[in-house]
Amino acid sequence: MTHAHIDHIGMAPWLVAAYDTTLHGTAMTADVSDIMWSDTYKVSDIEGYPLGWDKRDKDLALGAWCPHDLGDWFPIGSWNCRLHGAGHIPGAAMIEIDTPEARILWSGDMDTRDSPNAAGAIPVECDILCLEGTYGGRSHRPRDQEEARFVAKVLEVVSRGGIALVPAFASGRGQDILRILHKEAPRLDVHYDGMGTRITKEWLGNPELIRNPEEMKKAFRWSKRVSGKSDRKKALRANVIVTTSGMLDGGPALWYLNRLRHHRANAILLTGYQAEGSGGRKLMEEGRISIFGSLTTIPLEIEKFDLSNHGDHAALSAFARGCAPSDVVIFHATEEGRQALHDELAGETRVHLPTNNAPILVGG
Question: Is residue 131 a contact partner of residue 331, using CB atoms and an 8 Å limit?
């Protein structure tokens, strides 16, 4: 398990229940998984969509974890494996697999840049590189410039008497936002709500996996954590509210948005990818969003910032070259993105673009 985002661990309880699977990953991934699975189960129950697993399967999965420290070798059959920091979020790992035939590196979601809470991934020499391509063919703005632009916008909103609502992913983005604001604008009154507050406590139990963990601890203590209805009402008088969900598909963010929309000085500052069909994407494109079943116009300033924790095209290409593989397999990418990476690297190594149910031959 490379990391604890739900699109990567969401079906692990089914795997454990169906195949008696052992789950390998970092201690932080294991610790955060309970919160992520429990939230997924709750949302599926509320929204009425079926999961492939139930609470009993979740409990089995929690007992199936075998956590490992970064850099420590461990055997799986005739293979030897070890985890390397992936730079995506704290606790995210790449997996190096030494087999009798070849050395494989599976990148998982990764970024070579340092972020507030995670050190960037470093290339690992291998024969076969399985590389994520989320941002293949695309470039990020310089991270420091984008962080400065975000802080400047927050201060602008506050100076005109408004509140900056910052929808943020529970594991990664929300904590980065706290670090940025604590460092650059410590006089702000920042309230932190949603599932991220619980996940941050799990993070802090694994300080060795956080970049400058004492700074994360200070930022978390500096923020005013929202833990109930009375705290939520107090947050309506804050300068900044950082809360889930990052794509405005649920969580406290919609409660706040419903109340903040009446004051034009307020603003919504999106800091993460807004998927097709998400509330955040609809808000960006139409200025409207479904709030508790009612399609509602939001007459506020809406701005998006590129604070992604995925490597862009140049970073992915440089990482691949640093690993010096004979074969590269591109996954986790759009057709355009993986084709761009293919075109970039094909003159230097064999690049494979897999499709479902079709085998690929590597090496030789």
Answer: yes
d(CA 149, CA 297): 26
Picking from 331, 313, 312, 311, the residue whose alpha carbon sits closest to that of residue 105 is 331
Angle (nearest 5°) at CA 229 between 227 and 235: 75
Domain limits, the chain: 1-67, 143-304
pLDDT(363) > 80: no
Q: What is the pLDDT of residues 79-113, one digit of tens each?
A: 999 999 999 999 999 999 999 999 999 999 999 99
Strand 128-132 versus strand 327-331 pairing type = parallel
The pLDDT score that the predictor gives to residue 352 is 97
**8 vs 1: CA distance, rounded Å:** 7
Cis omega (within 30 of 0) for bond into 245: yes
Three-class SS state of 345? helix
CB atoms within 10 A of CB 195: 20
Q: Write the CB contacts of 263 (distance below 8 Å, at least 6 apart in sequence).
A: 162, 163
Q: What distance lies between CA 224 and its chain's CA centroid? A: 23
Separation between Cα atoms, residue 218 and residue 266, nearest integer Å: 27
Q: How far is CA 323 from the centre of its chain?
A: 24
Burial 251-262 (b: 16+ CB within 10 A, else e): bbbbbbbeebbe
Only one residue has tokens 């209805």, namely 229
Residues 6+ apart with CB under 8 A from 94: 2, 83, 84, 85, 86, 105, 106, 107, 108, 110, 121, 124
Are 116 and 99 in contact by the 8 Å Cβ rule? The answer is no
- Domain 143-304: top CATH class: alpha beta
Q: What is the enclosing helix (H) or strand (E) of 94?
A: strand 93-98
Q: Within 13 A of 33's CA, how many CA atoms are on the CB side?
A: 30
Residue type, 330: I
User: Could you tell me whether strands 93-98 and 103-106 are parallel, antiparallel, or unpaired per DSSP bridges?
Assistant: antiparallel
Bridge partners for 295 per DSSP: 290
Is the pTM for the entire model greater than 0.85?
yes
